[in-house]
Amino acid sequence: MRGVTAMLEREVPATIIPSGDRVVLPEGAELRVMQTLGGNITVQDPYGQLFRIDEKDGAALGAEYAPQEKAAGDASAFHEEQVWEQLRTVYDPEIPVNIVELGLVYACKAEPLPEGGQRVDIQMTLTAPGCGMGPVLVDDVRTKVGSVPGVKEANVELVWDPPWDQGRMTDVARLQLGWM
């Protein structure tokens, strides 16, 4: 999908990358689709500015970008690996690598709640402390982890210690970025 040009069929709220500011892109805007990983769509306008369009608004770019129906799971069959699977669907909108492979997830712990279900606590960081996309990524993590069957609470804490560096990336990430 990278580099495909699409025209917005309606106005769409979007997030400016990397500032994290919210804007509305006008109907008829011509945009180049840069990445469609994790459900959200990163687009570029003719001036080179990047924007992230939320998955729920993807259809405004055309039917091929419409959100896919997700199957409901059995809440009684919770497995922590399901949380990690969801974390692997969260992508930095500028880097085509998920946050797990980038080494941004420092801790993930699930605990049963007395009333049933699970509370999942996640500590994560960003590639740069000043990244305006931090709140967007934290919200993505909270939403996707909260969608795991059996999860009743998803708490995400943004931490800065230890600071992230490229040494935290997996070999998979390095390979995806052409660094190996």
Automatic annotation (TrEMBL):
Transmembrane regions: none
Residue limits of the MIP18 family-like domain? 80-156
Source domain of life is Bacteria
**What's the protein here called?**
Putative Fe-S cluster assembly protein SufT
Q: Which organism is it from?
A: Myxococcus llanfairpwllgwyngyllgogerychwyrndrobwllllantysiliogogogochensis
